[in-house]
UniProtKB/TrEMBL annotation, chains A, B:
The keyword Transcription regulation applies. This is LacI family DNA-binding transcriptional regulator. PANTHER family: HTH-TYPE TRANSCRIPTIONAL REGULATOR GALS (PTHR30146:SF109), LACI-RELATED TRANSCRIPTIONAL REPRESSOR (PTHR30146). GO terms for molecular function: DNA binding. Residues 9-62 form the HTH lacI-type domain. Pfam families: LacI (PF00356), Peripla_BP_3 (PF13377). Keywords: DNA-binding, Transcription, Transcription regulation. Gene3D superfamilies: 3.40.50.2300, lambda repressor-like DNA-binding domains. It comes from Devosia rhodophyticola. It comes from the Bacteria.
DNA sequence: CTGTTAGCGCTTTCAG
DNA sequence: CTGAAAGCGCTAACAG
């Protein structure tokens, strides 16, 4: 049985059924005033035909797809949350969110750009600093708004939404210092990224504020993944004076650290204190629960939305090109007072 | 400074630059053969103009938006994974995935339907049994393919992709029985849902196979959330003979149970064994790690994709309207041998 | 293999 | 406030 294929009703069908011109129907649909009597007839016709306007056609004619693109590196907990919040909040404005995951792969990211361009997104939200310059330039020239989050990328005309990475990191590390730790490792993530630099700067700030020289030998530059956290611990644990506490620049790194601790019977916080950037569900159910800096994904989504609307409703340029969202710093049981290593 | 608004190049621009008709260019774009010399000129023109085809226009003309809708109840770990896998794998076929989250709210779900209809998705993927009948009927009539996952919903013409809920649950509960447990609680989730029924059926099957009467008093019907898991434990822990093991129908319920155990110093697996449906990251980092049935989100996405392509490439109806994907059953340290309660 | 042409469904002038 | 008409960028016949 071939699928029935009754084509959807068009605005013309509605106009005929309602006995008026498509212009009037179109205006009604788009929220302009029409004579009450006409309004009623249109509404009935729409219901009878169960008409729904064709977004493609209207987007094409009005040269506005009402779609925005979100380019993420990964569908991890943070990005899933961001996508969810964003898609929901933007839907309220009649905007559609298209996602693409680049997996930190340039070829895939290139493909994503092609995808977004093809779909004529009116804005592109991303944190990818290695985006092809030509694509970006082209998109900006065509009026596509570029919003970067969680990263500072130097595009002319790009809006930015970031969290207070440095300050939040400062608070976390300061707490570790207050607890008596001085050998505090920093597992930094990818230091080519602004985020990583800022988080490390917060680590340094904390030492400076405490008038203690920062233990530069405990900086472990790496990538953002579990394997990196694990490798960091392998490295640290071979040292003569290993760190008594660790500040990890994202949650995946922390998970790698936790795995290493499990494997090597390292007990938190007695043998090691751990403070993580990013707060995820796993941290609430581990023993002990992991102290963490939570990125308020809801607020980030709202800030992005604000930028999107601001830049499209009023035509004035944004007052400030950068929005800063504050993180919550959660002290939990994975951090404890410094205790000299028992021999 | 108003945004520059150089309009994107059109296929006509390309045709002019390449010195030929738009028909030829269109054919080249869509993968038909063109004379090599022309091909080369088209490619150069496209590069020069940095042209990208307008998906809206082509979708409109060809009456195929190449978009599919995914309606999820929540952006939890499972659905985020599903979305990620699906979006990625479908993008390879040139298909776009639009998401909408209904939050188990009928009004929002209704809005979602309007959204998907408006965007002329060629398929709708969902697990929502309370969808408005009219919307569904209308969409099916218009040739929209409906694929349900993780649920059996009785739509004429709907494709279904499910996991082997009953069998996997049977395996999990059987293991608990093998470990000596007989008082095994079932926290079922919403029993109006097929999934919940199947998982409970698996629980029953295990007792039957072991020739033990199923402890019907340990069935706790509820919803799917953390609070439900917590409430279940409150209930169980007041019993004269509480369960020595629990089978939880999803991960959120299990997290609620874990919280209760933390609060009441219940040690897994000594005081209680726990087996959960759904496998999430938190279960790998809790102490002990939680035994769980993992839904292979990658395979589910592939199965859905297969249905989508099958039903659209060849016009024949699917051989079987239902695909079953096998779950992995992970035995972990949250389950242990039955030990009579110490008094 | 290529050029020509007729729309897809809608918005948006422009006159009334 | 409404109707008529001109396309938006592209695809899909059709005739070469």
């Amino acid at each position: 049985m071939p699928r029935t294929n009754k084509k959807p009703a068009t605005i013309t069908d509605v106009a005929i059924a309602a006995g008026m011109s498509i212009g009037t129907v179109s205006r009604y649909i788009n929220g302009y005033e029409v004579k009450p009597a006409n309004k009623e007839r249109i509404e009935r016709a729409i219901a009878d035909l169960s008409f729904s306007p064709n977004a493609l056609a209207s987007g094409m004619k009005s040269a506005d797809s009402r779609m925005v693109g979100l380019l993420v590196p990964d569908y991890d907990e943070f990005h899933a949350g961001l996508l969810g919040n964003l898609a929901t909040t933007l839907a309220q404005e009649g905007l559609v969110t298209l996602t693409y995951c680049h997996e930190s792969n340039s070829a895939v990211a290139k493909e994503a750009m092609r995808f977004f361009r093809t779909h004529r997104v009116r804005a592109l939200i991303m944190s990818w600093p290695d985006a092809d310059r030509n694509d970006i330039t082209e998109m900006i020239a065509q009026g596509v708004q570029i919003v970067t989050y969680d990263n500072i990328i130097d595009f002319a005309g790009g809006d930015r939404v970031v969290v207070n990475n440095r300050e939040a990191s400062f608070k976390a590390v300061s707490e570790l210092i207050r607890l008596g730790h001085t050998r505090i490792g920093a597992v930094t993530g990818d230091l080519r990224r602004w985020t990583a630099k800022e988080r490390l700067a917060g680590w340094r700030d904390a030492f400076e504020a405490a008038n203690i020289p920062a233990p530069e030998d405990l900086i472990f530059p790496c990538d953002w993944y579990r394997a990196d956290g694990h490798r960091a611990m392998e490295h640290f644990w071979k040292m003569d004076t290993p760190p008594s506490a660790i500040f990890a620049a994202n949650y995946q790194i922390s998970l790698g650290i936790l795995v290493f601790c499990q494997e090597n019977d390292i007990t938190l916080p007695d043998d090691l204190s751990l403070f993580s950037f990013d707060d995820v569900e796993a941290f609430h159910f581990s023993t002990p629960r992991v102290a963490a800096i939570g990125q308020p994904v809801h607020d980030i989504a709202q800030a992005i939305k604000a930028r999107l609307l601001e830049n499209n409703k009023a035509k004035r340029p944004a007052t400030t090109p950068i929005s800063v969202v504050d993180c919550a710093v959660h002290f939990r049981e994975s951090i404890g007072p410094y205790r000299p290593k028992s021999v």
